[in-house]
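Hi support team,

I've been running sequence recovery on a batch of backbones for a student project. Most finish fine, but this one hangs at about 90% for roughly twenty minutes before it completes. I'm not sure whether the input is malformed or the queue is just slow. I've pasted the structure tokens below so you can try to reproduce it. Let me know if you need the job ID as well.

Thanks,
M.K.
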């Protein structure tokens, strides 16, 4: 029970908004130092503005995490400026709806390189640094409910999240002896702060109607699961995935109920 995030350094990728931003805020409220990592200066500026109350507890680092040398430079810079890295959360990702017949090689590379390659490179570099310095750290990957089920128009996204879920278990097996835990959090459909079009609303209505808790996932729900996995209370959990989807994937609410016979 000796692990505490207070005073330690965490990297959260893809943390300019939504889930990543909620996770970054969660770590900051627990007195951690947080490196917000992303490829956009504009996104980084927005994140720092939103988290301005935390002062120099939070820094933004611009990096193309799909590039191995750049991912390595990011990890080195964070450790040099903010201290020994203890937690990594891979939240950066991309998704779009496209039928299999329409997917181009460029689109395939875009999804796989960010959703899988970038997370692998960051985790690989972070795990090595933790192991070399004796840090019993935490790595948490943000996957998706789509790792458990496919849906039309999301073949690449589902495949990338399935790959990341498998990598989670492989990292857990190989780095467990170093005291490093590696887990995943799989959100369902997440609510949006910005106005959404009719297509999203139709999906949201279906999701709520088929979720036992009758709601969309809040970014804070996902952040809470990540914070738990990064806590001392989760020191015995590794290679696992926590699904945060309000029960959407537990079963079928839209299946016709059988009439009770008397």
């Amino acid at each position: 029970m000796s692990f505490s995030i207070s005073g330690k350094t965490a990297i959260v990728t893809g943390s300019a908004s939504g889930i990543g931003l909620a996770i970054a805020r969660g770590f900051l409220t627990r007195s951690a130092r947080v490196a917000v990592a992303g490829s956009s200066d504009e996104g980084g500026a927005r994140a720092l503005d939103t988290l301005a109350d935390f002062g120099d507890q939070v820094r933004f680092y611009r990096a193309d995490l799909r590039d191995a040398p750049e991912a390595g430079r990011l990890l080195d810079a964070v450790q040099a400026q903010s201290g020994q890295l203890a937690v990594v959360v891979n939240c950066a990702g991309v998704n779009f709806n496209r039928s299999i017949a329409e997917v181009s090689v460029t689109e395939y590379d875009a999804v796989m390189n960010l959703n899988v390659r970038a997370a692998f490179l960051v985790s690989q570099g972070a795990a090595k640094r933790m192991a070399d310095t004796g840090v019993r750290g935490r790595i948490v990957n943000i996957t998706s409910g789509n790792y458990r089920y496919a849906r039309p128009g999301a073949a690449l996204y589902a495949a990338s999240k399935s790959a990341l879920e498998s990598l989670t278990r492989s990292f857990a097996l190989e780095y467990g002896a170093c005291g490093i835990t590696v887990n995943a959090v799989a959100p369902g459909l997440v609510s949006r702060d910005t106005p959404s079009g009719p297509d999203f609303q139709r999906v949201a209505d279906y999701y709520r109607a088929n979720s036992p808790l009758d709601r969309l996932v809040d970014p804070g729900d996902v952040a809470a699961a990540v914070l738990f996995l990064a806590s001392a209370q989760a020191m015995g959990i590794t290679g696992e995935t926590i699904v945060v989807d309000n029960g959407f994937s537990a079963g079928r609410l839209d299946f016709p109920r059988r009439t009770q016979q008397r």
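--
Follow-up from support: It reproduced on our side and the slowdown came from queue contention, not your input. The longest helix spans residues 105-133. No action needed from you.
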